[in-house]
Amino acid sequence: MAKKEKLVFGKLNLMRNDVLPKNKKICIGFVGGGPNSFIGYTHRLAARFDNRFEFVAGVFSRDINKSKEFGMALGLDASRCYSDYQSMAKKEFNRPDGIEALGIMTPSGDHYKIAKPFIENKVNVICDKPLTATLQDAEKLEKLVKKNKIVFALTHNYSAYPMLREAKEIIKTGRIGNILLVNVEYPQGYTVGIKKKDEASILKWRLDKKICGPSMIMAEIGTHSYHLLRYVTGLDAKEVSAEINSLSPELSIDDNAFITLRLKNKSRASIWVSSTATGGENGLKIRVFGTKGAVEWFQDDPNHLKFTPLNKASRIITRASGSVSDFSLESSRLAAGHPEGFFEAFANIYTEFADAITSSKKTNYTFPSIEDGVKGMKFMFAAKESSNKNSKWIKL
Amino acid sequence: MAKKEKLVFGKLNLMRNDVLPKNKKICIGFVGGGPNSFIGYTHRLAARFDNRFEFVAGVFSRDINKSKEFGMALGLDASRCYSDYQSMAKKEFNRPDGIEALGIMTPSGDHYKIAKPFIENKVNVICDKPLTATLQDAEKLEKLVKKNKIVFALTHNYSAYPMLREAKEIIKTGRIGNILLVNVEYPQGYTVGIKKKDEASILKWRLDKKICGPSMIMAEIGTHSYHLLRYVTGLDAKEVSAEINSLSPELSIDDNAFITLRLKNKSRASIWVSSTATGGENGLKIRVFGTKGAVEWFQDDPNHLKFTPLNKASRIITRASGSVSDFSLESSRLAAGHPEGFFEAFANIYTEFADAITSSKKTNYTFPSIEDGVKGMKFMFAAKESSNKNSKWIKL
Amino acid sequence: MAKKEKLVFGKLNLMRNDVLPKNKKICIGFVGGGPNSFIGYTHRLAARFDNRFEFVAGVFSRDINKSKEFGMALGLDASRCYSDYQSMAKKEFNRPDGIEALGIMTPSGDHYKIAKPFIENKVNVICDKPLTATLQDAEKLEKLVKKNKIVFALTHNYSAYPMLREAKEIIKTGRIGNILLVNVEYPQGYTVGIKKKDEASILKWRLDKKICGPSMIMAEIGTHSYHLLRYVTGLDAKEVSAEINSLSPELSIDDNAFITLRLKNKSRASIWVSSTATGGENGLKIRVFGTKGAVEWFQDDPNHLKFTPLNKASRIITRASGSVSDFSLESSRLAAGHPEGFFEAFANIYTEFADAITSSKKTNYTFPSIEDGVKGMKFMFAAKESSNKNSKWIKL
Amino acid sequence: MAKKEKLVFGKLNLMRNDVLPKNKKICIGFVGGGPNSFIGYTHRLAARFDNRFEFVAGVFSRDINKSKEFGMALGLDASRCYSDYQSMAKKEFNRPDGIEALGIMTPSGDHYKIAKPFIENKVNVICDKPLTATLQDAEKLEKLVKKNKIVFALTHNYSAYPMLREAKEIIKTGRIGNILLVNVEYPQGYTVGIKKKDEASILKWRLDKKICGPSMIMAEIGTHSYHLLRYVTGLDAKEVSAEINSLSPELSIDDNAFITLRLKNKSRASIWVSSTATGGENGLKIRVFGTKGAVEWFQDDPNHLKFTPLNKASRIITRASGSVSDFSLESSRLAAGHPEGFFEAFANIYTEFADAITSSKKTNYTFPSIEDGVKGMKFMFAAKESSNKNSKWIKL
What is the pTM of this model? Predict the structure, then answer.
């Protein structure tokens, strides 16, 4: 057996590549992600990115013929294309080569019930966010995962960008001192032009609170933003005050949220998420200010991190350059200057999920966990409650 | 008499230059701005920038010898260097060539009393911000200005950057449609490293609420930010909710404010001002999002404006290029590509103040007025009250 | 059979996804790319990116045990791991399920001899650049490809970035008018710090002109740059004048080239490539200036294209936004604002190579061809000759 | 007498302000710069910027009435407005309060003859670039300046940007090691759209080689670029090879130049200047690469300097921040984050010219000198000769 090699190229010394531990791939199936699903395509690509998964089964439609047609077009055997998760759970469980891992990318209201039979069969689960549509489901799912000791990953993919992780490492090692102030913003602009008559066809399930939760913008990107804040800083919010509105002219769903957070001690944070920011194109940005320095990362320039030591010139740290830590380097695949992007970050979650399955020790994962999912749900519900109560501070 | 010429250079066709209307300069004096005063230097430079003022008198110290020494070093006649504003007011009033205009750049608590005798003598006043330290003084000053019909300008200098004005024009002419959302941020980092023992020597009068108002960060840059929001959008806030804190480790003055604003109808805004944003260097930014487009301007790149029409590519509009309106072009002095900066914007206020004095019609000024000053004070006090009441919404 | 679906997400309407034409993958093998090879890893990832290839065979070492060990670690069957290309060609040819496509990523001196037996067996070839190490080999390879009518692709991967292609489309449709001026630059900095004693261990085969050609920097990135210029503008150089040097303190290989090019009519171009540009990190940039506008693309910000119509504001066009052409959109996989990078561009070449193999019509490929490879070789040799003759103009 | 004070603001500790050495201004006159002259306006503004000059006399037109009308509109006494430089020289010389300094901003062909009578009367001269239109005039002017020991400054204003000077200081103190490679580029786009019929009205004297020299683009910005290269690096060119063309569709003047330079030892440089770079807006950039690091400065972002130590993260050094040297700080007027621009740089030349006049010691000026002017002329003529000889290398 070839041991997992490091790629060496100049200063680049990478663990992320396509060499298999024990020469073995993990068999995976997916529920969700039919023909026009961007997120389905993304999960499948992320799974094959580092050569770690063999994609063997799936539910792509409630119509068995459509599910088979699409599954075969992805290269599956027709016999492993299913019309519902229940039959998939049962049949895969009865196969000697049944799936070891399941990816779920349906609307969040279905996550718990779909995951349940698989988890009870010890299938490891990687699930899209937000975790569920209700806090009750989230907590039930958490219990189930812990009871069955499976590996569970939540695809808060933004936290897996190498330079975002470099920010985390810089903070963790004390290079910006104690945190004073955090800003996260995620401006998007996609709801501004939507007409009332097109709302249902464009926004689809996002309009249905039963399957999407109490607040569209909070479910879509509010939970991402809060996870990012927690992931990078290591801090939880104690209280939140929020003003959440529907600003797009013809719509009534939540499309903008201003949230102020009290973290521990004197430190404060703000989160702004919007789909009303005309012209916004996934402009996720995080800035963390401490007593000894500051860091800033922006998704539109994901391969660089700005690090400003107190009273010194800002450093522009490039991914995989000589200035990065091993922690972020291990999430990189390319030499400095060759740009990586969204898919590489998403694939990092999948590959670390694979590592956690393959590895005997199930601790210290860097990917988002079931606990992270539950905390995200609590944040979303607290912010919505605050907004409903005229920005009253709500404890988390 | 040479009429005021336009400079023509390529597409550049400028009104801002050093040609005098009626071949005549306006005599000006200053109160404040001694040897180590940055703001004093800035006002004097702004006054001479476009050749419109003759600087003839001033109070630079309470010690008459020091005041004379410094005034002469600036090129003044010793007889017009004074030790207090009262004697300056009296003596200048008795001269046939006495000052027609007064610049005030003392701490704001003194603005009203200094301005009073000059205004009563029909001297026009240009005053640093914030207007005063109390709402009462602000309102008394407003009455005085209106009663005496003098020209009054407040140096909210950021509003005079040409490309900020281009943003105003784009909004005014409907190119971004109805405003949905506004963000203003002004991160600075200068209080982070200050030790308790150095507080008094570094922050000086900023620690004294009597001469600086109820909230250091709100007085310093909160009022600037709110003026900018109003200037660019043409909208006033109806209510504010604020969280204002002291985050710098060893200090107790306000150094960070998160403010949410309800504007008219459905539109919302946020203002964030800070001196705790480690590494922040006057990073003033404004973004306005509407139903048909968005604009974004950033002081660190002042010669460009980003304009994004709905569902179209962003335009990077350069100052004085073929794409700008006459309104912003008239605030420009240099061809596109040659950078202008802070002093040019400051000088615009002075030159428009001169125009208003020289012109017979006293309307439609583009510079910040006494009313703007009063609104800024109301905003500052409302935000502070909200913060004191646990972020309760306060009406303006 | 599911027809190849378009993914629809907002305005995004993509052809690039993982749906297989006729439910069928293409069997591919690789020669080159052992354990520590970055380029080997890149080719394999590019092949699996869009789910179009089944990787089944390869030569990874001259030592059969090492080749098997590594091949199995990539998931191959041991029986299809070979120690030399000759036996691979023979054995794969004799299998009913033998490879239909071959990827070559050895040093360029070996390309011709490796490709030959496969091409003669009608195996389609995708080959790393530069095409060969001599002009003779390049021309022999061209004849062989044309005689056997196989599909041949050269991985000048930079030309497959979507926004680079948008630049090509803007130029082709006349939006910048007639081309006047072109700049290409590719500054890297990796040779500056190399000590004489480490030269062999770091630069390896790059020191050997027999397997790498007459000029290190020209072979590595000069050919890339010239291909990019030709791809984007549609113009060939008529004459070149070059100053090629070895500037790194302790080295003697070519590490910097300044090249001036006369294109057709009055138009001129410059190409600058370097590994002596300290701190340079794959800073590939192309700027094209025409009678009606200009375009600029920079690898460090690959998801945007700057397009400046004559006398108008620059447009920042975002990949996959509402402003792009179908041509570039078809090379995209992600909605505007989510960054794509180097691997996606590389994968575009592989996927279009797959399309060309699958499709009955073998024309109008967008990927770099055998003719492009030959032109790159002629450019490299002419530039080197010019430099040897004190920058004399050399005809191409 | 007040000694010249330093302004202290936070870390800012500035020498540039409006305090007069010995309470005294220098009387200055100008030849050139009539009503529509941008460069005339710029010189006058630069002279009054730091309060150091009293503008008292000038020639603004050959028509005495026009000259008086314009001069009075600038605030001059009618008796000191002249119609020709000869009478100005004579009359000012006979006044007890005659000018001590002369600014010249006519086309370069007139510089020598205008300067001559003033220099012979010991009037100090500040002159626009290029120095003259012929090498003969340049050398005669140099002799005259040296013989009469007057202070002479040439307004290569770009060299006076504080962060450009910081680049010089970083290089001088060895922080980038030995220089290997230099790039200077200055793309402008103003000739692209000019029609043949408008050529004379737009380009004016630029078409006349007698008053503007052998090559429009070289005189306009080629000399600026070469001065910048020499100023920042401290190196002279030994040989140049150039391709200078007229690329704008309807014009025949030189509008684009690619120049390669051999500096000392192994080091090389390139200069590209153009008015055919459609959309170019004074995009002056300089990059210097050495054995230990690199620096990059761009006029479009003049308040920052990029400094990249070998194998380390790039530093973005901000003007007047805690990271700059005294050398650049002394050219600054504003705290870090408040942008300075073109006029401040131009004013630096004037203020240092004033310092040189006022000071008893006449050495170590930082502003461009008569020798710099002569070297620029030699460069321009050598480059033009090389281009005429099909890019032959020409010694300087």
Answer: 0.96
